[in-house]
């Protein structure tokens, strides 16, 4: 039998999603409630948040970030809706095929989450005295589509955009009203036109992640390809009234790119580093005039050409999540299949280089990650559902990450009767008070 490279890549990718199993379930927490998992330890620097995404009720879990960067799970708060798991065989971790299912903003003092099975979004205000204590503002609102799976918050922290990945797919944006919650912005419900199902079928061909461009003038969504057909980034222009251009511009990865997943802005470069589940990572140079289609906010005739690239990570299985560490100047990428963290440097010419790799526990299925700066130092928080835990790494300098803590999720969840399933856990976002 002759297998093409692409079908091998895809089958390795799919197989990598079959690692984690269910964990014990307790007596479920009543709807509408909040449970304390542990008392405050004081010395709080901020918080980390992720979701249970359970079909019986989606809960936001809040964890305290101590001044030493370490985590303590503190609370589970009803998010006012239910979770869902995308259609994939075999069923595994990363239920929403996404990054950004939960997103916090220090500027807005808010944290927002999707309720993927209810087609709603919920926003919470963060207690300025205890960032693990949050209260829902208003009620959950319709996401403007089906299977919401990723959120972006603008720089000012007063606007939230959602990516819907189901049969009715595309983007939609909301103003954050401090009294009533999320209020739809006119002319922001825009279709991606994907031939999808609700819940979404994936990971191939599914939506991945939504972000604002660095200057907040564009909204960008990533979509995975169906090999050999590569995926793309969809780019809408944002008008001054917050509305979106009627159509999006589609940007393909460089040759070799297949499944664009998470997107992390490369500061000051009008460029994005996207993880690529089928390869490693792609760099999108928005200054480039590719195929006669320049990015709409680009006006740089001195540009020496397209510095976009598709970069392989040798031995990778499914590199899907990423974040940027301002203190080390490097990007940190996680691979669910190999449970490996890859540190990448992107130079002034947008050339990406692997700095170092950090293997985590075999089978721990490292997925969503985020970075927080605490007392002048960066810490990396990685959701590892295969081990029902969170890996905490101290980023002591470029190439100098070290594991400092493994945080158990199963025990604290059981102790308060919170239903969790390793395959349903999703999201990771950090908050450090401005
Ligand atoms: C919890 O509430 C949601 C709607 O907010 C509802 O769809 C779900 O069925 C409820 N779950 C339980 C266990 O009552
Ligand atoms: C925060 O703490 C200060 C001082 O203890 C108190 O005055 C203030 O009311 C608290 N704010 C909230 C929102 O609890
Ligand atoms: C949509 O996908 C389904 C399932 O793969 C397929 O049968 C159908 O032909 C597709 N429709 C279009 C318009 O591509
Ligand atoms: C992209 O370029 C093609 C060919 O130059 C053109 O027909 C098309 O309108 C352009 N699309 C956008 C969104 O600019
Ligand atoms: C590009 O720059 C030129 C010269 O500065 C200016 O006249 C033009 O309006 C700009 N175009 C866009 C699309 O910003
Ligand atoms: C224009 O492009 C060049 C080369 O790509 C880059 O060095 C320069 O910073 C860009 N200038 C602006 C204003 O974006
Ligand atoms: C990881 O687990 C797989 C499957 O259980 C096994 O084949 C492999 O040898 C393990 N690798 C390491 C480094 O332990």
From TrEMBL:
Tell me which positions the record assigns to the signal sequence.
Answer: 1-20
Please name the source species: Crucibulum laeve
* Keyword check for Signal: yes
Q: What is the lineage of its organism?
A: Eukaryota, Fungi, Dikarya, Basidiomycota, Agaricomycotina
Read off the InterPro entries from this record. Lactonase_7-beta_prop, WD40/YVTN_repeat-like_dom_sf
Per its record, how is this protein called by name?
A: 3-carboxymuconate cyclase
Q: Does the keyword DNA damage apply?
A: no
Keywords recorded for this protein, A-Z: Signal
